[in-house]
């Protein structure tokens, strides 16, 4: 059985489409379809059932997943065995919530690429948890540890969040002397039905039920604060990127959350990914510390 056919089989299983697998592998969909047909001929069984939702594994296809993934791991190990130790090369795809992806990972990626000039870093910012089982990324950062799946989880770092607003907004609106005073202000927060993790439900900590301006993106919320649109809870590490936005009511609300690094359990034997995971963890911790350290001490 050809390993390259198994590689294509895994891509279709993970993306549930020929075109998605083709984009991932740099092949056209018709080539992917032909290779799947060739593999099905070799095993003597249909591996996928085409449905309106995409290509779904048959029972025979599901049974092929474990040996195909074992072959994938063996190929990766062989590649690592001949890789020059002077620097890590190839592609690293990191999935992360957009606050981390926007304000932390660009600097971390810069340092990784400086240390390893042959490395290509891809940052996937999604308003949901990245699916490592489908190999959407090599590793992922999340705001809660997963409770299912064949995954390994490592606590990265804690970070803090506070209410904040632009100085111009504060100058034009009633004084913010207590949480009760928030009723006289426009609130900025997440769209309630698009909160994908309970740890992101910051608005409930304020006692305010409704935000007048909302987005599923932390970056959009921050831009709204910079525009003087209202008051919102944001990451302390994002504030150095928003001149004029300052923390308020720090004695009333101070939230602490954690980032978690998640990897597929099958990747534990990959020395390359382990080294990159260690460097990523160190970089994220250092960047949170650096950015939070730039903020003035709360009154």
Automatic annotation (TrEMBL):
PROSITE patterns (alphabetical): HTH_LYSR (PS50931)
Signal peptide: none
UniProt keyword Ion transport, yes or no: no
InterPro entries registered for this protein in UniProt: LTTR, LysR_HTH_N, LysR_subst-bd, WH-like_DNA-bd_sf, WH_DNA-bd_sf
Gene3D superfamilies documented for this protein: 3.40.190.290, Winged helix-like DNA-binding domain superfamily/Winged helix DNA-binding domain
Alphabetized UniProt keyword annotations: DNA-binding, Transcription, Transcription regulation
Any Pfam family the entry gives: LysR_substrate
Record-linked PANTHER family: TRANSCRIPTIONAL REGULATOR, TRANSCRIPTIONAL REGULATORY PROTEIN
Family membership noted in the UniProt record: Belongs to the LysR transcriptional regulatory family.
The name this protein goes by in its record: LysR family transcriptional regulator
Organism lineage: Bacteria, Pseudomonadati, Pseudomonadota, Alphaproteobacteria, Rhodobacterales
